[in-house]
Write a structure and sequence with these properties.
Blueprint: H1 3-23, E1 33-35, E2 66-72, E3 74-75, E4 81-88, E5 94-102, E6 109-114, E7 133-138, E8 143-149, E9 161-166, E10 171-177, E11 179-180
Parallel strand pairs: 1-8
Antiparallel strand pairs: 2-4, 2-11, 3-10, 4-5, 5-8, 6-7, 6-9, 9-10
Length: about 180
């Protein structure tokens, strides 16, 4: 066999391997479902093991988490549906919850809170990395119900949308405008 033909074949194999690694096309047909429970209320303080004779009332149970904002996901680069909820716990910490999520898998997909407005269609594909964003974490699964705890210093007033963001290709799979539901 001629050396140039062998070199061409080797280069083609390297190009195919690199393309498969970069695009990971099989992920478009692989679903990963995650079913996490709704974030619980903050744990109540543990009861003392020694009997008390105090007439002090028993501590009130911790209030249930309250929804602060929510929105419906719309499709961008890939078909995406579900609901986004920003929930504030009794401890004051926020959790981002994705409910009934259905989207495509991808090679490097994250959940972002952003300051960008949600635009439908191709106009909304690339706007979320233009301004302020908070990476809540790698997408746990492309289907189901998932919780993403947010940092203690999270300021909900600084964010107006959530994007299912493919970091590898800098494109939104889908996004939701957050509408405030609680004070």
């Amino acid at each position: 066999m001629r050396p140039w033909l062998l070199g061409l074949l080797a280069a083609a194999l390297v190009a195919v391997a690199a393309g498969l690694y970069w695009f990971q096309p099989w992920r478009l047909w692989v679903d990963e479902t995650v079913q996490e429970d709704f974030p619980p209320a903050a744990a109540a303080p543990a009861a003392s093991s020694s009997p008390t004779t105090s007439s002090a009332p028993a501590p009130a149970p911790a209030p249930a988490p309250a929804e602060f904002a929510s929105g419906a996901l719309i499709s961008h680069e890939h078909g995406t549906s579900g609901t986004v909820r920003l929930v504030r716990g009794a401890d004051g910490k926020y959790v981002l919850r994705l409910e009934n999520l259905a989207t495509s898998s991808g090679p490097d997909v994250h959940v972002w809170l952003t300051d960008a407005a949600v635009k439908p269609g191709e106009d909304g594909w690339h706007v979320f990395d233009d301004g302020k964003y908070l990476d809540a974490g790698k997408l746990k699964g492309n289907k189901g119900n998932q919780n993403y705890p947010l940092p203690a210093d999270f300021d909900p007033a600084a964010y107006r949308s959530v994007s299912i963001w493919c970091d590898r290709f800098n494109v939104s799979f889908g996004a939701a405008e957050l509408t405030r539901t609680a004070a």
